[in-house]
Specification:
The chain is mostly helical. It contains four helices and no strands. The two termini are 56 Å apart. It comes from Pluvianellus socialis. This is MYO5B protein.
Length: 151
């Protein structure tokens, strides 16, 4: 019981910490948006005082600046995603290695135990109604499989 209470307490602390971090991030985002809005208001007020040609040029400069910032944000996101992709590829290699090790360890299991495990798998498969895909079998079980298919 004490273990479960500690586990729940740890989970609650993690959730509280995540919530506080999320609130802080949202506050920072709101502050950044307020600053951006103030800049846009100032730019708008300045553009109203300009001639029509200067207003168009000023608008184009503002759009170029916005697009440049957006491009930088997208490049940053792309770098982050590429980094995450590399991390996931490394994890995939580790898991594939573990699967290969597991399969190798299964190859060393005595033949009787393997045969018993396969019989159990066949029994489970027979309960299912929808069969799709390919059948995997061991080479030494091929005559038994052919005989079962014929009968």
């Amino acid at each position: 019981v004490v273990f479960f209470l500690r586990l729940l307490e740890a989970q609650l602390q993690d959730q509280r910490r995540e919530h506080e971090e999320e609130v802080e991030a949202l506050k920072n985002e709101v502050d950044a948006m307020k600053e951006e809005m103030e800049k846009q208001q100032q730019a708008f007020l300045q553009s109203l005082q300009l001639s029509p040609e200067a207003q168009v040029e000023f608008g184009l400069q503002q759009e170029i600046t916005r697009l440049t910032n957006e491009n930088l944000d997208l490049k940053e996101l792309l770098e982050k995603l590429e980094k995450n992709e590399k991390k996931l590829k490394k994890q995939l290699k580790i898991y594939m290695k573990k699967v290969q090790d597991f399969e190798a360890s299964q190859a060393t299991v005595p033949a009787e135990r393997r045969r018993h495990e396969r019989n159990m798998q066949v029994a489970v498969q027979r309960k299912e109604k929808d069969f799709q895909g390919m059948l995997e079998y061991y080479k030494e079980d091929e005559p038994l499989l052919i005989r079962n298919l014929i009968t």
